[in-house]
Amino acid sequence: MNTGDKTAGQAQMLANRLVKRQKHLGKWARRRRINAYRLYDRDIPEIPLVLDWYNGAVSGALYKRPYEKDPGEEEQWLEAMRQGTARALGINPSRIFIKFREPQRGKAQYHKTGAGEFLTEVSEDQMRFRVNLSGYLDTGLFLDRRLLRVRIRKEAAGRRVLNLFSYTGAFSVCAAAGGAALVDSVDLSNTYLDWARENFLLNGPLLADGNCNCRFIREDVLRFLDGAAGENRKWDLIILDPPAFSNSKKMALSFDLRRDHRELLAKCFRVLEGGGTLYLSANVHRFKLELPAGGRTGNIVPEDISEGLRDEDYRGRRIPAAYRIRLPG
Q: What is the pLDDT of residues 202-225, one digit of tens each?
């Protein structure tokens, strides 16, 4: 079989798989009132793509292959996969955005790819979020955190909520929609804080009846926590969804989640109200949770909730480790 025939055959295999997945997940998504979900995640070994559906458009990534491939052949192959995807889903190929993804450190996956911007809105239940499908490797909404967003919305009523490494503010919107008394979103990036503000504006009608005080704070998280502890400020619910690694020039020191999470948790516990809850999401392979020693943390038994956050579109797929940690009252 020549290269062209092999590529055409793989494009048809991908199309067949997508038709089946969309038929199943489309029904599920309509019941759940969501229109953004994972369609395909390297299901066929010869086709190492990840493809996500975003309200009539697709954002995807081609993972680095374990062997060298001629760049021209790779581009022809990718175009064939794009055409097969468009055929299967009944959309224009111009609405399909596939980027190259290699292992990233920190928030490198959030940096612009130079591909321009394709902005659209997606919904989860009544909430709406702005996503950028073409300009970044990641779109602004982590689909594998969907059920954690549901939890936050259910548990936020009347509570003071702190969203650390808040990115585009999706957790913050959920907390406000759930009736939080206060939502503080902390991130170093003005770009993402502005994006978070836009997500709040999108949800204005949903939040109009609440009395939430929502603040957007541009600061290094570790410095912010030290300052808050010094002022004896407290929150009832903390959302901690840090990058695996960060060496931003705006930070005093580099941050490595595996190495530094115990110190980070210790700082969080100093500002978490007694009886309060912290949710930790750790998107790194082989993450081993280590709690800080001593003080009131001695009686903590963290609850691994990872499997409980596996939604229908992530069955059989890797999702971030997640823990619910409650401080003694």
A: 998 888 666 679 999 999 999 999
**Rounded-to-integer distance, Cα 273 and Cα 117, Å:** 41
CATH node for 3-102: 3.30.750.80
pLDDT higher than threshold 90 for residue 111 = no
pLDDT band for position 72 (cuts 50, 70, 90): confident
Q: Degrees (nearest 5) of the Cα angle 139, 89, 319?
A: 40
Q: How wide is the angle at C-alpha 85 spanned by C-alphas 17 and 15, nearest 5°?
A: 30
Q: Quick one: what percent of the chain has pLDDT higher than 90? A: 74
Q: Select from 228, 290, 286, 284 the least CA-distant residue to 256.
A: 284
Instruction: Tell me the per-residue pLDDT of 115-172, one tens digit each, with 9 for 90 and over.
Output: 568 999 999 999 999 999 997 888 999 999 999 999 999 999 999 999 999 999 999 9
Query: Residues of CATH 3.40.50.150 domain(s) within the chain?
Result: 142-326
pTM greater than 0.90 (yes/no): yes
Q: What residue ranges of the chain are covered by domains with CATH 3.30.750.80?
A: 3-102
| Closest C-alpha among 268, 169, 155 to residue 218 | 169
Which of 101-105, 191-195, 245-249, 288-292 is the least confident region? 101-105
User: Is the pLDDT assigned to residue 295 strictly greater than 80?
Assistant: no
Contacts for 21 with CB less than 8 Å, ≥ 6 apart:
39, 40
Considering only CA atoms, give the Rg of the chain.
21
Does the domain at 142-326 match CATH 3.40.50.150? Answer given as yes
Closest by alpha carbon to 43, among 91, 76, 10, 6? 10
